[in-house]
Amino acid sequence: MIPVGEARARILAAFTALPAETVPLPDALGRVLAEPAVARLSQPPFAAAAMDGWAVRAADIAGASTDTPVTLRRLGEAAAGHAFAGTVGAGEAVRIFTGAPLPAGADAVVMQEDCEDAGDHVRVGHAVPAGRFVRPAGLDFSAGEEVLPEGRRLTARDVALAAGANLPWLRVRRRPRVAVLATGDEIALPGDPLGPNQIVSSNALGLCALVTSQGGIAHNLGVAKDDPEELAAMAAGAAGCDLLVTTGGASQGEHDHVRDVLSGLSLNFYRVAMKPGKPLIFGTANGVPLLGLPGNPVSTGVAAVLFLVPLLRHLQGLPAEGATVTARLGAPLKANDGRADFLRATLAPGADGLPVATPFPRQDSAMMSRLARADGLIVREPQAAAAAAGDRVTVIPLSGGVLSL
């Protein structure tokens, strides 16, 4: 068995970030920028009113007050998309609306609440300094400025910013293509008739959902029975993918065929010092990288969090390691053995600002409900000493994906 860290390092070392492609902006949500996004214009492109009111010269109304208003001659008006063509001179003003270009000669806007419209004139009852309620050109960003960095996974906010920067296309990393193949005579697809000794297949659908949530494209190859010829034929469907992920058949039993059947399998490692999920294969099968996960559903899920998620991030040009959380234990833990342990746990707010991580009392690798309810995985290093409630622990959050706002 090899340590978890070494296994992850070997997997990541076998891949480089995927090449870039150009996509239209509406398709960019969740994608990772392959190069910086640079604004094609300044925003705003001109000095604009930030308030409905009157465009004036600040010097003309320096002494204005409610008791002693200043009367200015009205020249016209400016609205968003409709600039005033003239110039504001001494003793003059232009009715202006939010977003409209500031007329030449004017240097401030007085709110309409502080003015009295008198037809051909306006009485201003409040003095303002130059620049008041004016958004200068380039206030948000300027043409040629980097508005989004390379390596950023694009959120809805980022899409809006790119649109404002007049970027109809973006260069992003290609999405990883992952083939998923479940194995075993004992599993059937959800909704199919179940034999007397069968269970419903959950691993493949869960893995496909995980791949999608991390920005990849999942190809569900179905369920291969414990038959060498069928397994080999169905695994061939991974041709052209960046990765083949199998579930089940990775152990050493007489019915575990993944290592033996996939012709041309070049094995990098087999078995990792962790629980759950010790039987884990990484290598190359028929020219396609292979990650063989165990069959127990929780083992599959935990192994996917530890190895598949970092790989998908790495392929998209993101840092492989996601953020971890420091928490306090909500229950005592016994000393650990020689394998790293990843305990399913809930997280709740703590009194001192640190969350409280409470492991489920039973950590069975077949209990999917516990994994679904978990907020994170408590990391227990090999040979870790017993821990008391309140001790600090590291937690891998079970959250994060492509649909951040």
Automatic annotation (TrEMBL):
Presence of the UniProt keyword Repeat in the record: no
SUPFAM superfamilies, per database record: MoeA C-terminal domain-like (SSF63867), MoeA N-terminal region -like (SSF63882), Molybdenum cofactor biosynthesis proteins (SSF53218)
Reaction catalyzed: adenylyl-molybdopterin + molybdate = Mo-molybdopterin + AMP + H(+)
Entry EC no(s): 2.10.1.1
SMART domains: MoCF_biosynth
The MoaB/Mog domain, residue ranges: 179-314
InterPro entries linked: MoaB/Mog-like_dom_sf, MoaB/Mog_dom, MoeA-like, MoeA_C_domain_IV, MoeA_C_domain_IV_sf, MoeA_linker/N, MoeA_linker/N_sf
Record keywords: Magnesium, Metal-binding, Molybdenum, Molybdenum cofactor biosynthesis, Transferase
Pathways per UniProt: Cofactor biosynthesis; molybdopterin biosynthesis
Uppermost EC category: transferase
Cofactor list: Mg(2+)
Stated role: Catalyzes the insertion of molybdate into adenylated molybdopterin with the concomitant release of AMP.
Family listed: Belongs to the MoeA family.
Protein name: Molybdopterin molybdenumtransferase
Organism listed in the record: Azospirillum isscasi
